[in-house]
Amino acid sequence: MAVSPARRAEQLRREIEEHNHRYYVLSEPAIADAEYDRLFRELQDIERRHPQLVTPSSPTQRVGAAPQSHFAPVSHAAPMLSLDNALDRAELEAFDKHMRESLEQDKVEYSAEPKIDGVAVSLLYESRELVRAATRGDGFTGEDITANVRTIRSVPLRLHKAGKPPPLLEVRGEVYMSREGFARFNAGAGERGEKTFVNPRNAASGSLRQLDPAVTAARPLHFFCYGAGPDAGAPPPALHTEVLERLKAWGLPVCGHAGVARGLGECVDFFRQMTELRGKLDYEIDGVVYKVNRIADQQTLGVRSRSPRWSIACKFPAEERETLVKAVEFQVGRTGALTPVARLEPVAVGGVTVSNTSLHNMDEVERKDVRIGDTVVVRRAGDVIPQVVRVVADKRPKRARKVKAPKQCPVCGGKVVRGEDEVAARCIESLSCPAQRKEAIRHFASRLAMDIEGLGEKLVDQLVEKGHIEDVSDIYALDAKTLAELDRMGEKSAENLVAAIDKSRDISLERFIYALGIREVGEAMAKALARRFGELEHLMAADEAALLEIRDVGEVAARRLRECFADDRNRRIIKQLQSNGVRVQKTEVTGPGPLQGKIYVITGTLSIPRSEAKRRLELAGAKVTSTVTSKTTALIAGKNPGSKLDKAERLDVEVLDENAFLALTGK
Ligand code: IVH
Question: Is ligand 1 within 6 A of the CB of residue 464?
Fold first, then answer.
């Protein structure tokens, strides 16, 4: 007797799920692709003829959800924590010692796992079916990316019955792009003239943030899980490694290189093994995670605000690679400084491809003795800019050429000089050198300066080259008609830019000072100057002695300021800016301030914007930095504080709440 369509559809679903699991999770396909396609088409066919038989978790339903307009917020049942880091062996030792002492055990057993370099997600299974997927967000609230995650083939839409998954299972893990998939994707995107990504992690993150799930479906994404929510099945598992075993049995992908390490010695061994394995894996890992294996012990230890006490991550040291210096060219900056830049044979290091790197100045080139034709070691750690660490001396070819500082500016052909007390050689044609004019204009328009949105690098190039802008005051004479005629500008973007220029006309004194781009005068000094002088005219009239009274202003900066404001051309430009409608506001003049010399860090949400909190502290003379160190006076912690709170606790740095902060700044 023929089976009913409903029975057949269910049979097919189970069979296809099984093959998906073998193919995408176990990497052990059991049938040929053609056979799989036949099963899939049969199921599609039944579902087409009997639409009432379609279930949300059917393998045919991975792709096809309609594009969304936004990602809805999802609040996590328990916060998605991050991990504290051990930076070296000594810190790992300290962690293990702390664990042994707190748990009163001679040797602690850890689950040791590769730290997958992807994007953290939470999956929710209800009665075995995937019902929701969310990003980590700020740890408390993430975004609903269910439709996108459903397209990832290694994420089961339905869990295996065997091993009885709990009725409500939360799974946490990492979505990543394989190295091979990343290379293939970028090559294709490059050919089509589409956006490419710098590394697999950014590619995974960008792919998950697509509003159209069909786009995500075409990206080579994978998933590994590394933990479960409070209910991980019955009876409750005693060990974290048991949780991972169960997840695997329910059909979820778990990284095959996770293991157990008993005591510090085995942790160190595991780290060494992973360091060796790292380059051979088809996915990126950026370290190792250790977790106290016994769940009862985890509960005894508990969690800090942002990270569990029972776990630590050991990141790999910065990656280093060798490559060839093909040439050294000189770039001309805003102040005319010539910066040597090494053109390298492209090399993948620390997750990005490096083909250029700054050598900073000629002293640096000579100190490292970098020559054209040399093999050099390039290093990149985390999000840090790649740099040349050293030359590989025994790989130097006979024909390697010394780098010569140019006698003429590579852009305008002007004279190059190097002052006695300076590291940089400079083109002195500051008024006519187009490279310097362009840089000065870019700086003037940049976010921390006048903040003219839309006036980017390419546009400045065109405006200078076509003669529309000579100096920064000409920005305020631009009209929509002129702008609309430029390459890649339409009427709409021209209007937007005119509006952005207009918006920048009212500007605070500190931003204006910074925007002038005077050498040695950074953001912090611009602030201090604004507070001391209050009005642009007063600053312009100040002599060196008055400038030197400010704590942060040294002799060189004082001289540069004087030179800038004494220069006729600069005075004319400032006047022209004002007649073109730029209004520099006055700043309240303050003395040294009650918080002079103190250093604060802010974390979490306060009832006022963080920039305002920063401003108030700075007005009182304090410095505000972003990293907690032993020098930090106090950490100001608002609601939902970040990992900075953990660090402050660790370093015994005072923690102030919002009320204490308000009392401090007298508001
Ligand atoms: S456990 C309760 N295990 O690393 C601790 N995290 O800051 C939660 N990660 O965002 C994390 N591989 O997404 C854990 N085997 C692993 C991991 C892992 C990668 C990510 C995780 C988190 C970050 C740590």
Answer: no
Short-list 172, 146, 173, CA closest to 283: 173
State the pLDDT at residue 190. 77
Answer whether 228 contacts ligand 1 (Cβ < 6 A): no
Catalytic residue among 115, 527, 623, 644: 115
How many angstroms from the chain centroid is the CA of residue 320? 20
User: Where are the strands (E) in 101-182, listed by range?
Assistant: 109-116, 119-126, 129-135, 141-143, 168-177
642 CB under 6 A from ligand 1? no
Distance CA 127, CA 122 (A): 16
CATH number among 1.20.1560.10, 3.60.20.10, 2.40.50.140, 1.10.275.10, domain 320-402: 2.40.50.140
Which residue type does 341 have?
A: V
Nearest CA, atom 3, ligand 1 = 226
The pair phi, psi for residue 154, each rounded to 5°, is -80, 0
Take atom 12 of ligand 1 and give the residue whose Cα is closest.
115
* Residue 238 scores a pLDDT above 90: yes
Residue to probe by mutation, ligand 1, list 82, 83, 248, 311, most atoms within 8 Å of CB: 83
Is residue 161 annotated as part of the catalytic site, yes or no?
Answer: no
CA distances from 261 to 96, 298, 311, 585 (A): 12, 16, 13, 62
Counting DSSP H helices and E strands in the chain, the numbers are 24, 26
Instruction: Report which ligand 1 atom has the smallest distance to the Cα of 303.
Output: 2
Please determine, looking at this structure, whether the domain spanning 434-504 carries the CATH number 1.10.150.20: yes
Nearest CA to ligand 1 atom 13: 120
φ, ψ of residue 385 in degrees (nearest 5): -65, 135
- Is residue 634 within 6 Å of ligand 1 at its C-beta? no
Q: How far apart are CA 312 and CA 293, in angstroms?
A: 12
For residues 562 and 544, the answer to whether their CB atoms sit within 8 Å is: yes
Kindly state if the Cβ of 289 falls inside 6 Å of ligand 1: yes
Tokens read off for 468: 């529309």
The domain 5-61 is placed in CATH, from the list 1.10.287.610, 3.40.50.970, 3.40.50.150, 3.90.950.10, at 1.10.287.610
Answer yes or no: pTM beyond 0.90. Answer: no
The pair of structure tokens assigned to 62 is: 């991975």
The whole-angstrom separation of Cα 476 and Cα 216 is: 43
Per-residue pLDDT of 118-173, as tens digits, reads 999 999 999 999 999 999 998 999 999 999 999 999 999 999 998 899 999 999 99
Q: Domain 84-315 adopts which CATH fold? A: D-amino Acid Aminotransferase; Chain A, domain 1 (3.30.470)
Find the 283 Cα to ligand 1 centroid distance in Å. 15
Return the CATH number of the domain spanning residue range 509-584: 1.10.150.20
CA 62, CA 60: separation in Å to the nearest integer?
6
What is the C-alpha to C-alpha distance for residues 368 and 381, in angstroms, rounded to an integer?
20
> Does the CB atom of residue 119 touch ligand 1 within 6 A?
no
For the stretch 363-378, pLDDT in tens is: 899 999 999 999 999 9
Class of domain 599-665: alpha beta
User: How much distance in Å is there from the Cα of 386 to the middle of ligand 1?
Assistant: 25
Q: Identify the DSSP state of 46.
A: H
Q: Is 120 in the pocket of ligand 1 (CB under 6 A)?
A: yes
By most ligand atoms within 8 Å of CB, the mutation choice from 80, 84, 116 for ligand 1 is 116
**Ligand 1 centre from 83 Cα, in Å?**
7
> What pLDDT is attached to residue 8?
95
